[in-house]
Amino acid sequence: MKNDLQLIKIGGGQDINWDFIAEDLKRLKKFIIIHGANHKITEISKKLGITEKKIISPSGFVSRYTDEKALDVFLMIYAGLVNKKLVALLQKYKINAVGLTGIDGRIWEGKRKNIIYSVENGKTKLINDSLTGNVEKINTNLLNLLVKNGFVPVLCPPAISFDNEIINVDNDRAAAVLTKSLKIKEMIMLLEAPGYCKDLKDPKSVVSKIPFKKLDRFIKIAQSGMKKKLLGVKEAMIGGVEKVYLGDGRVKNPISKILNGAGTLIFKESIYE
Amino acid sequence: MKNDLQLIKIGGGQDINWDFIAEDLKRLKKFIIIHGANHKITEISKKLGITEKKIISPSGFVSRYTDEKALDVFLMIYAGLVNKKLVALLQKYKINAVGLTGIDGRIWEGKRKNIIYSVENGKTKLINDSLTGNVEKINTNLLNLLVKNGFVPVLCPPAISFDNEIINVDNDRAAAVLTKSLKIKEMIMLLEAPGYCKDLKDPKSVVSKIPFKKLDRFIKIAQSGMKKKLLGVKEAMIGGVEKVYLGDGRVKNPISKILNGAGTLIFKESIYE
């Protein structure tokens, strides 16, 4: 029997309309949510007088420099403010949501990176106090237990290391590992864009379908944020996901619109054979 | 069969030693944790430039004035920073903890107080923007499901109103309603004191045993913080709890010491009949 569990990924941008999303999620049956909170992190960090530091990896990816102070803010915003407000909103729409991080029940377990490289002014530097890592193992029993009993897990970083440290992880890659472990076939990603756009400034340039075999081409030309997302999508599809919908998280009835063909559908050709 | 589920209540004071507690909790079998975070709230509110406002009720109880800004801080510290750090710490000691608020799965449901009274400079004022309430209903299915499957729920405020607002609630009273719903017979409360002390300044004045029928006398003479706790204890014992241990949350092996007679044991006489 085909797995009917879906993964909904909600971006953490300022213009994402959580209310529209929560309202429209009622139409789905069995799903897990993973959400971001980037905009709120920036906003609250400023208020706390904490400078957000970025790391640019030698291969050009931008990520957050997470020392202990930054991790505290991360916990406050992700696990506290954003996760719980989303859970309350979902409860309003009769979705029995349960907010969790990767720490709870060790859902997201991984290795802390002891050393990471950062390119600053053309020079590569070593950073050894970064509390980051990659999700390598999903402890699926808690998620399965909740889903089986009618609850909707609402999941966000951070994760926990094999040595019990709290570690920041990339949401898109964590989602990929999760879909593989839970054998999820469909993923819906809600963005601050109408889908994958050839020209970022032109919403009408959205590509409506991308077969998996052409995904690499799009990854190559995509810009930083979208490139990371598409790499996550690729990893998820290699792991077994068959359909990924990218669509607009700012509009009314976002899920319905996406499932009716708005946005970008990335698909495994095999499912149409 | 007697219910062997225990409730552990951990105070949110600055000197509570979370590591000692987590380490010693391994000795227990089936339990739920409820924790506070008061000290961190005060610390982070200051950093955020938010003035903590207190309300003194006409009957003399001090509570936090929770408007929308204060509730945001509350979510960040309780649900985010403190809850998740405690969960990670428990995981370190092989306790499979899952951090939750009363919002998740609607565990703590109640009515928002539309109007509350505050005494300021001898005058009674009406406050109508307070996001507070009382827990009236426990949705036990999530907690039972987790406990039955070997997870340890780590619970903290806020709660959710019947109208889906996030509301701040009193931890001690919420604990009382919880013990009744789950038919819990034993509660251990970890404080910044060696137990109930006749003289707050003299740790040797700790009262080692208080029979339930004498509890009212102690409530009468107790000071604000302890009075509130004892009122919670009374409510819990009327609801069915038979033993409440009050003990020191600052020392090594706190649980072992408490169960071996350190601290104060409040007990229903009937259990010794």
List keywords for this structure.
homodimer, 273 residues, alpha/beta, Carbamate kinase, eight-stranded mixed β-sheet, 8 helices, 34% helix, globular
Please tell me about this protein's structure.
The structure is a homodimer of 273-residue chains. Chain A has one domain: Carbamate kinase (3-Layer(aba) Sandwich). Helices cover 34% and strands 26% of the residues of chain A. The first copy, chain A, contains 8 helices and 16 strands. The first copy, chain A, has helices at 18-25, 38-47, 68-92, 140-148, 171-182, 215-221, 224-238, 254-259, and strands at residues 6-10, 31-35, 54-56, 62-64, 97-101, 108-112, 116-120, 123-127, 133-138, 152-156, 159-161, 166-167, 186-191, 209-211, 243-248, 264-267. In chain A, the strands form 4 sheets. An 8-stranded mixed beta sheet of chain A has the order 5-10-2-1-13-15-16-14, with helices on both faces. In chain A, strands 9-6-11-12 form a 4-stranded mixed beta sheet. The longest helix of chain A is centred in the N-terminal third of the chain and has 25 residues, at 68-92. The radius of gyration of chain A is 18 Å and the shape is globular. The model of chain A has no long low-confidence stretch (mean pLDDT 93). At the A-B interface, helix 3, strand 5 and helix 4 of A face helix 3, strand 5 and helix 4 of B.
